[in-house]
Amino acid sequence: MSDDGNAPVLQARGLHRHYGHGDGLVRAVDGVDLDVAPGETVAVMGPSGCGKTTLLHLLGGLDRPSSGEVSLAGHRLDRQGERALARTRRNDVGFVFQAFHLMEELTAVENVELPGLLGGHPRRAAREQAVLLLDRVGLADRAGFLPAQLSGGQRQRVAIARALANEPLVVLADEPTGNLDSAATLDVLRLFDSLHEAGQTLVVVTHDARIAATADRMIAMRDGAFVDETRLTGGTTGRLGVLAGLED
Amino acid sequence: MGRGMLALRLAARDVRRRPVESALLLVAIMASTTTLTLGLVLNGVARDPYQATREATAGPDVVGAVSPDSFEGRPADPAGLEALAQAPGVVDQSGPYPVTGAVLEADGQLATAEVEGRDAASAGVDRPELTQGRWLDGGGAVVEAAFADALGLRAGDSITLNNRAFPVVGLAVSAAAPPYPSMAPAGTAENPLQYCPLPAPSPCDEALAGGGFSPELDTALRRVDAEHPGRVWLTQADARSLARDPASLNYVVHLRLADPAAAHTFVDRHLPPGGPDGAVVPGTVDAPALRSWQQIGDEVEDLLRNEQEALLVGSRLLGLLAVASIAVLVGGRMAEQTRRVGLLKAVGGSPGLVAAVLLAEYVLVALLAAATGLAAGWLAAPLLADPGVGLLGGSGTPSLTVSTVATVVAVAIGVAVAATAVPAVRAARTSTVAALADSPRAPRRSARLIAVSARLPVPLLLGVRVAGRRPRRVALAVLSVAITVTGIVAALATEAQVGEDRGSAIAGDRLDRALVVITMTLVALAAVNAIFITWASALDTRRSSAVTRALGATPHQVSAGLSAAQVAPALAGAALGIPGGIALVSVLDDAAVLPPLWQLLAVLPVTALAVAGLAGIPAHLGARRSAAETLQAEHA
Questions:
Q1: Whether the predicted model's global pTM rises above the 0.90 cut
Q2: pLDDT at B503 over 50
Q3: Residue of B446, B469, B552 with shortest CB distance to A115
Q4: Cβ-proximal residues to B255 (8 Å cutoff; 6+ apart), any chain
Q5: Is B552 close to A162, i.e. CB distance below 8 A?
Q6: What average pLDDT does range A99-119 have in this prediction?
Q7: Distances (CA, A) of B241 to B117, B209, B262, B565
Q8: Which residue of B has its CA nearest to A53?
Q9: Using an 8 Å Cβ cutoff, are B53 and B176 in contact?
Q10: Interface pTM, i.e. ipTM
Q11: pLDDT score of B506
């Protein structure tokens, strides 16, 4: 599906995720094929309950498919054991959640350094990287603040900094602006845009068409399956706010 | 429907909805109430077996004894005992009978026998009750039942006494002296007879000739366990023939008084005045040593008093542990009940109703636990009150008094309310919106712990941070282990003491039984606590654990972290429990014996390993929970 000639960094083939059996069978993801090129920003859009989050968890190795294949940088995630999957999430994937999921008892910088510590990096190196990332997301002056002392937008920027901590191949964002007001949403979109400019591969799932419109490619999803795909240019125009309907 | 009834119905439904947790809660409180019931119902039954034996054997009200003065070569004179039997207040007597010591050998085992010569005809006072075989009418030996039990003897077996063979014609119990192994050795305040059990020639010869107590004599007496003599009845002729010489015989007389309750007064009146000049010493050739039945009864009662004390102390420790157990259970359960609290409040339940529902749930279980504990303790009491083979007639099933029932019920409810009040009030005060959103309580932050943990391997990093989030839960874990280790160390110390007093087959076995009951219950409750503290932590940290896994931690690292979070408090608890146990036994007994050092040192690693193993189960189950499902549930 990618036409830029690069080998896809993230690939799914015939991906299914079912829950329950018989009459209670739920097809959360139902036969999805996807290729994401390096540096590409893909938005998956659809209503609540269409399977977007489940898809994201499958792509990131947080959940296992009922059938089908998921590959990241050529490695089959669906064949990996728990330990290898954990290593993949640690080194190659960064997650951003709608509810931020920051550790309440950790300061912003402690949250951002956590992936580095889990990856076995020395504390000093993990801390230096965290400070750099907080500076990159514009929160250097909030490094010592607890999540409860930050606004929603600031918390999401901390979460994005945390997702970048181990320089992942792909960042998977689940409704990253779902809990934010317009100003904070614009901040996050600009941050994603800067990541895009830097060549970071991004997969964003959202039910908000305006957010999806800022991507390179928008895929519509319904009842667990992809139903439409649109190639966009908005993500490179620099007029994110206008495009997303957040600015005049 | 009244609010009280509504609270009760809601509480009863929730108890039914969570049968496993309710059952564990029941077990936790029941452990405490059962032990408390045992301690309370055993109070006062200690003397009953001795009384039963006294009645069945026409036990003496006073026992008098005279002994020879071996240094001056003066034999004991039974005339003093005859004169005593004529004293006002004495209504019946048996004796004087000759008594000597002898070495008993049975199937290769050596023991010290206190041999009393008796008539073939049955006596009016102190008529040993046969539990096997027959009396001395055809010669032979009748052995005290507890002594025979320890030696594995039965009627029909053979023994030797100072190398002379005797058939064992019967086994019997008597109330004239405490049963084996409680009877004191010869030459003590409790047993004023003077004899050396070793036949001539032996190290006794030199001692009796004024040579003093030699190491050889000490070794020889240890071989025959002279510290714990047992009683053997022979015919008078046989008993006299076993003595080193006729002048070495002691004599005893058994007296019945018109007023048995006045036995103490009789003894005081007839003990000759001792003075600084030491002119007359009780128990010598000149003056009989006297012992009342109450004094003998007190020594017998000591057997039961130790285990009763152990049970009462154990029940207090278990009560404390039960508070910790319930606090842990309630804390863990409250984490799951947040949404239910929100629903109750959303449909109009006042904070008071919410608190009442939560409290009622635990009070219902506590009442059931009190009833079950009372029944279990009452039914188990006869097992511990069993007097053993040395005395007759058990105390039967001890009676439950109103005060025992009231105490046990009050303790059960008190324990439940003490553990539930804080979380119930906290839940009642939670905002309805926050409760409906199932928002977890904000964790505590310890900057120092977080900084220190950043330098640790991943499982320890996670463990320290999990522990640091909930300091109160850590305190409960420390308390739980500290109480358990206190009980274990106290049990080890008591075991060491019993071991020092060995020979103590009855006292040791009975106390051992009580200690095993308490220790096993303490360990079982502590195990439940360790599992539930870990499970509560797993529930409490389910979101942060899921996020940690999303960031790359393996399930093994997460479960190892949860286990590690329990091991550090367990080590702290064990470190507190060791001095706690030593302090407890020191308070209970001035002459307490400490357990061997290796046992005390082993407590720490064994505790750590046990807690790690127990915590591993819920930690593993918690870590198996799908991180994706947990994170998705947060959107719901």
A1: no
A2: no
A3: B552
A4: B60, B61, B62, B63, B64, B84, B85, B90, B92, B93, B125
A5: no
A6: 91
A7: 10, 21, 37, 73
A8: B632
A9: no
A10: 0.85
A11: 39
Long-range contacts of B49-52 (CB under 8 A, 24+ apart): B49/B300, B49/B385, B49/B387, B49/B391, B49/B392, B49/B393, B49/B394, B49/B395, B50/B175, B50/B296, B50/B297, B50/B300, B50/B301, B50/B387, B50/B391, B51/B297, B52/B387, B52/B391, B52/B392, B52/B393, B52/B395
CA B336 distance to own-chain centroid: 39
Rounded Cα distance, B373 and B369, in Å: 6
Cα–Cα distances (Å) from B589 to A16, B182, B309, B523, B583, in that order, read: 71, 18, 11, 24, 10
Mean pLDDT score, B584-590: 74
Whether residues A91 and B628 touch (CB distance < 8 A) is answered with no
A-contacting residues in B 246-285 (Cβ below 8 Å):
none
* Residue-wise pLDDT tens digits, A2-20: 444 568 999 999 999 998 8
Report strand pairing: B289-292 vs B62-66. antiparallel
Tokens 């749930």 — which residue? B361
Whether B548 sits inside 8 A of A118 (CB atoms) is yes
Whether the CB of B624 is below 8 Å from some CB of chain A: the reply is no
Q: How far apart are CA B595 and CA B584, in angstroms?
A: 13
pLDDT of residue B42: 65
Structure-block tokens of residue B491: 């049990």
Q: Comparing B279 with A66, which gets the higher pLDDT?
A: A66
- Tokens 């959940």 identify what position? A63
What is the band of B491 on the pLDDT scale with cuts at 50, 70, 90?
A: confident
